[in-house]
């Protein structure tokens, strides 16, 4: 357990051997010497009707001398046994704990809830090497290799260059007992000794990192137990070169050393984050032996030191789309000198390794049902598919969903409005601010507001307030703030030739302007048009399930996203936020190299749609400017939410009229969204 | 020709395809586009009785359009054809020239006389890559790989890290036509793109380097044609850390930064030498893509950045004995960033990669006859064997053979005595000095001597003068300068309690002292004792053929070496100097990677004898102190040279007597020689 694999073995078979024979991954560093403590298992006692066996502690061998020595020296939790020493003496249900903790480290709650079957690319192997012998003058390294072949079956080992000068002193320091870290990512590649320590070395870590345009997120995880030691994030310092990706590409184009400066900057930030997770997890950076990275194509290129200019113009050519195998030292990462790096493949010029990570995490390709996977950022990356077929595209949503280009927009921080409700009768708003649990109409809110301030509207609340304005009839189906409502509420205020809605009028005026509504419309129309293209490509009218990846998805209410028509109609219970799915995919690829092969295969299979090349994108975009959509019905949403009656208005400030001129403005917007 | 391989092919088969099918190596960079000119062949016309065919120019297709374009643009020597374009139309004897010269480079006379069949680890492959396509968003690198697989059959290509950031600009600069250098050293390793150029790149070079303690020697060779572009040498600057190897090991032991300083120093010298051979051969250092190194174990370790201290004390443990695969950039070599490095395996703690190179060059393991291969330096490396069995050892000859520790010894330079003859009647010497073609008793010598000076005795002449002294009866069988001869000649002069022989008494007194003779005896006894151990190990009394490798062997007269008993009795015509055999072996491994596999296999098979562990070494050493030897007869030598009658003397200054005290001195010497 938990794999459920079963088999028959002769009495006296070590549990570890049985596990290996069944293909169940149980770590062992010391090679059965009962010194590393990595191969812990537990026996489940009881009558297991399902398996038709009775499993009891009598069916496992008693603790022997070697195991007792380990227990006395290091201790072992109640019920735990070392599977290299305990032998099978009868029917057993054996549990392989997924949190094996050595040296009494603190166990933290894992931020990833799933259990990832482990098969890391790096393995620790302890060996006792023959001492030098004048009669058989094999070199130190050669005798080490011979023993790694004899004890662990590693043939034809390569050796990281940095180890060669150190072999002799490490062997002598360990009194000829050493632990080697062996990296083998795939069957066809030759295994390599990437690190070497004197004596038994019982710690091997990896990092899984998602390099976002705004935030870099990282998990630090034990490759031996799968335990997440720390998870953290840091701002991407490239922001000083440009908020959004395209302005960073421009920076590279305009500045001779721009690419190099950006590469240095992102790698430095990653090193800072490595320091941070290591401090948090109490792990030495030299114990990090493997690293997996995902990121959008531009971050991917800049991290690898590649000029991203080509990604800023058609045909949006990636310099490299396949998975990249590299070394930490090549990328100047402050981890073990021999550490390896794996970068997930990119799907297309606008659909990066981060989208590949999200696909790996959410596994649409293993589903019978049709899954829509959306990662909303400055660019929305959209994947749609099931086990038969997967298609992908990106849509230029712009920064509105991140709170930029919104008059009262701000980052999610204390004092920012994060929830909004508008009374359909009075048009009065209620809201919550980050840092307070109270709604603005509840007792005690005033004190909280006094303390925290009411400073702006954060990205996710933008969706909510515009949707609520629409549901309350403050804005029309085509997104115009209805000035005639000013008669009903002082919250509707004139703003030049257009109207705004006043959410809060405390120390700071917080209003939603006509321009704000337009920005949200443009962003959501781009996203929806991209989704529609993929649905058309596959030939479906509806999706079965929707996954929102990324921070944005975690905070928005699916209902409001659907009211605004960001996403197609779907059962609300089937719309789920999955957090940093890209990072989870990276973690999976870190802990199990077969996931690397899986995503490489899937990415080759994914059909890519370039929205800029699709003539129907513009039509879908124009239709999607309406709330929730000009042509598509939202029957499932209508069951849950009372949508307002149709109301078409034109905003005075925009020149009025819904004739040709209006049309042409939307077309311009569509064109803008596509470049 | 020259391989002699033959086969039948359908009419119309391109000659290049036929060659490949037969396993004959014919280079091609452009992949059959008739643009690189590397696949040149010549048709031999005539009636070939041996092959029972008539080969005529009518049997090869006429020059077609593509080939004509090449000829017009680049020119082609009379009789040459491009085998990618010329097809077989009848019986042909085809010559594959071993000197294919492109772009009218000067052909130099090759310092290596043998023809080395080529199969280099690096191959150039020109491809035309698909342009980027938004509908199939494969990355630039991925499309390059796809084309290298399609056109050249390379599957599963890896890529050198330094190329990744450059791929996009190189592809665009070459207008999607690029030349990739692919490195694959062995079947089991994955091929790797190590360099990339825009357009057709038609030059690929390699260096083969022997890192000697005194001199570093290098060949620069075209990997495409096998042509040696330059060969040169440079002094090993480590000499400032210590003349001999052991003093360099001491330097490392005594100085905290000693190892690093020595490594830097030898790598810098290699880079200087690379500049030198590149200037000489008119080759760009960036066109060097592969490098093969040999060296004694201490140079091997220092070059690779390994502390050699362990090699200075029992059990003389090598840090690494097997072949080392590395990168030029890892070793700070100033060659192409992606260039590979291969270092031949070491045989034992005192028998290095240089000895392995000499074995590869002289191939005792492919001989039926018993070959003795000796490389004399401060340490003599000795290999003995044939196709059944090969044994190896080293013997601590000390620096006497290099002219050090000899009172009048000096480097081989103008004015140094290089040849000596002593008249058996008058005991008068005749000699030649470097820089003059005359013997000292010939007319005109005085003028040469006036011009050049007579400055000392060079290493090789030391052997000759001591041997001539012995043949003239000036020294006894046990190496004592016979003071009683002073009565016969004023050349025998007292020197404290011993006697010296005066070779020249011009401006500089040049004498051979008793101490000089002793130094030569100690050195030659150590060498001979080592050889005897190996002969005993194999169970033979005589060897069939002897090879002297190294500079020393090139200058000594085999006869005198045998008179002194450096080497065992053998037909004099079977004693050959083979020059820098280690360097030749490196060159072979550079031009043909199957030689790498061959020497790796042979080295594993070679039985190593540690002279310090063999109790019989001392006995052999003491016997070998005598001239030519106390116990071994030299029947073949005696047929050619009249050896003097036995004469035993003891040198007064050494305490006299041949009793226990004398014995113990020789034993001390033997012990000294073994530590």
TrEMBL record, chains A, B:
The record ties this protein, via InterPro entries, to: 2Fe-2S_ferredoxin-like_sf (IPR036010), 2Fe-2S_ferredoxin-type (IPR001041), Beta-grasp_dom_sf (IPR012675), Corrinoid_activation_enz (IPR052911), Raco-like_middle (IPR041414), Raco-like_middle_sf (IPR042259), RACo_C (IPR027980), RACo_linker (IPR040506)
Q: Which residues form the 2Fe-2S ferredoxin-type domain?
A: 1-100
Task: Report the Gene3D superfamilies cross-referenced here.
Answer: 3.10.20.30, 3.10.20.880, Domain of unknown function (DUF4445)
- Superkingdom field: Bacteria
Comp. bias intervals (Basic and acidic residues): 664-675
CDD domains in alphabetical order? fer2
Extract one GO molecular function annotation from the record.
iron-sulfur cluster binding
Q: Which PANTHER family match?
A: IRON-SULFUR CLUSTER PROTEIN (PTHR42895:SF2), IRON-SULFUR CLUSTER-BINDING PROTEIN-RELATED (PTHR42895)
> Mind telling me what this protein is named?
DUF4445 domain-containing protein
Species of origin: Nitratireductor mangrovi
